[in-house]
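Same chain as my last thread, 231 residues:
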Amino acid sequence: MEIRILELLDGARKAEGTTVIIDVFRAFSLEPFVLAQNAASLTAVGEVETARRIRLQNPETVLIGERHGRKLEGFDYGNSPASVCGVDFTGKDVVHTTSAGTQGLAAAVRADRLYAASLVNAAATAKVIADADPSCVSLVCMGWECRRNTEEDLLCAEYIRSLLEGNGMPDIRSRAEDLRFYEGKKFFDPAQAEVFPEPDFWLCVDPDRFDFAVEAEPCDNGFRMKAVKPI
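reply #2:
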């Protein structure tokens, strides 16, 4: 199994084989919460207007999304795991758009199979991939708004790679929590608390909280996200 770590939109465009789009802060940490809380469907879209058009067609649609970290006008939730944690989405169709993670999905046009991952479901993602035993795996770190590399996405990619190689990373929890000194500093800045609440940090750095991978399947408007458990 060849395993490559790529970065940003250029990396997503180059990704081949089984491709994992990684966005720890916060898109693909949030999506497992939505799926675990019984959403009828979860669709990831690249464009804000696509999300709004879907809502016009179905006014009961729940919209989740951000640009520059801030909740989009008219949306029900921003890209905050803390805001959706514990919400009952039973029977709800949810649409999600963000500055990085969902953009990476749209850019990964050469992927054979596509997953969205973060630290909260890294081990399950690695196990699902290992079960399929593909010849090529691309791990794509989306970074901050697809513009610059970030430590948390690279750590997640290295963790998934270590699991696929059979090594693991025994200190993953402490390394994840240490992110508060790097990209995670914004979650502890009182001036940014409205956009980046501290609880989001702790929810995003809780390794392997969920026992399922999130597979992205192309659909008419974007990608249908579904929970997939390892064999």
